[in-house]
Design brief:
8-stranded antiparallel sheet, single chain, alpha+beta, 4-stranded antiparallel sheet, globular, 2 domains, about 35% strand
Length: about 325
Amino acid sequence: MQKTTLELKGLTAKHRRSSEQAGCPAIQGRSLLEHFHAFIMSIPESGLKSDESDLYMRVTSVKCAGSSVFVTIESGAFGDDGKVYDVETGAMKYPKAYTDSMTISSRVVMYQPPSAPMAIFAVEKVGDSKGYFLLNSFVAAMKQYDDSYTYQSSNIYEADDWAQVSDLVKINVVAYKKSLSHRAGLEDKPIIANLSQTLTPPKGEHKFEPWIKKKILNRQIDVVELFEVSDSPDKTSEDKESDSLDKKCTITLEHEGRTKTIELGKVGAPVFREVLTEKGDLPLGDDAFQQRAAELVASRYKCLGLEWSTAYEQSEWSEDSLKFRWNTSQIL
């Protein structure tokens, strides 16, 4: 089986004539969560496709509980003619037409507890699955359903979650360079030039003072400039070489016995990504997947000042909410 990860994404809405901050307002008397369920139920059995991005998706199951909607989808890309081969024998299985899509099953959960400042989507990534196509399709549909609101989806980054609740336990700066391959140019993995320094908390302490972490994350302290990455304080040939090397700084954060290493100043900061299973492992069952997703989402909401309740995971939906539907002729 392929490696599976979980990524988080936020969704907010704001009335165009309102000066209030974007959040999760009731839209025509319904929450974004109820609208998401209505949107899911409006998707035809034949699924959805985007001719612009050449993506295809169909819903295979839906479950509502507490402040969440759990959806299993099959998704993939289409748009290229080709052939499907057996990789073991090299024999062609069948031709692939322009409208054929090789789909992968994955899961998406939307959460919106009462008074939440944003809705959060937990999206399972399996191989080339297209879970975000579901979120993007929902946002596009909401714009058609009620365009008196603006809808904004946003990435949730690793540092956003960990920076607020974790302790800074290690700082590391490394000077490195890429190796040059005559066949392929720069190789993916850098060669570490054995020029590195690591800073740990003072003796007897397990963590740095919170103000140090805050200043580093707010870019008020340039850690790379503070470190002289060399084996000797004197200028040597090695020092001269280090001046031409690239340098990077990573910090190690710890929270509730778990650690995460984040690279500072990296272009395109990584979105929040949790490894669920490694390649070769069996995927998590639905219950285990939803439990892990709820734990990660609860942690994020706590960072936003919202206390989490088990009722957000287990309570039953009202019959009125379950029966709410869209007028599909206006949307799809």
